[in-house]
Amino acid sequence: MKDLFGKAIFDFQTNNAPEDIITETSISEEDEMSVAYLFRSYPEMPAIEQKALQLAKGKILDVGSGAGSHALSLQNERHLDVTAIDISPKAIETCLLRGIEKAEVKNILDYEGEKFDTILLLMNGTGIFGKLKNCNEYLAKLKSLLNPEGQILIDSSDIIYMFDEDEDGGKWIPSDNDYYGELEFTISYKGEKEESFDWLYLDYNTLQNAAIANGLKCELISEGSHYDYLAKLSI
């Protein structure tokens, strides 16, 4: 892994001539993403993310923290106990430079020890599951890290809208995948290209079914303006 996402974040933090990140998926063309967006303050966040931060309480684990904007807001504005984790070393280095007190390079599946009152997975939190078949492994792990009254706040989008319709209103979905929300994601930065990785968008009903199968209650908290939603999972 070249850690291009982390490099972009670190370049922005250290004023090292940051450029836009180029993203591409198996069902969409190249798109430019401003690295500055990853450094947004609470007022600049989408309503779904603001709602998640409002609901966050107690001891918090921010999974896939990126540049650490969610963790920073909770730590500095609400004075909560937050641990930020990400698989990107450069992203975590940036979190520490930004003043996040607890940040470490870690895959959630390898995380051990502490339990939490709130686990956050934001900016399409289901993405890290990769494939539909991995949902049980990830949800079981997340559940094992929750305190008895704890909550998992996770967002995603139903991307069925991205597929063409036939005359009867049915959708043309490629048969390569087990589920239409399974994508291959590619990131390019400063002329370098990361190896493609699996990324999962989950519609709410599918997330709810997976949660129930793993002994979790699933509640729809809010819906965004573009097929996105925030869900709360609890034991």
UniProtKB/TrEMBL annotation:
The first-level EC class reads transferase
Catalytic activity, EC: 2.1.1.222, 2.1.1.64
Give the UniProt keywords, A-Z.
Answer: Methyltransferase, Transferase
Q: Which CDD domains match?
A: AdoMet_MTases (cd02440)
Segments forming domain Methyltransferase: 58-181
- GO molecular function terms attached to this record: 2-polyprenyl-6-hydroxyphenol methylase activity; 3-demethylubiquinol 3-O-methyltransferase activity
InterPro entries from the UniProt entry: Methyltranfer_dom, SAM-dependent_MTases_sf
BP GO annotations: methylation
Q: Per its UniProt record, what Pfam families does this chain match? A: Methyltransf_31
The keyword Transferase belongs to this UniProt entry's keyword annotation: yes
Top-level taxon of origin? Bacteria
Keyword Nucleotide-binding (UniProt): no
Annotated protein name in UniProt: Class I SAM-dependent methyltransferase
Question: What is this organism's lineage?
Answer: Bacteria, Pseudomonadati, Bacteroidota, Flavobacteriia, Flavobacteriales
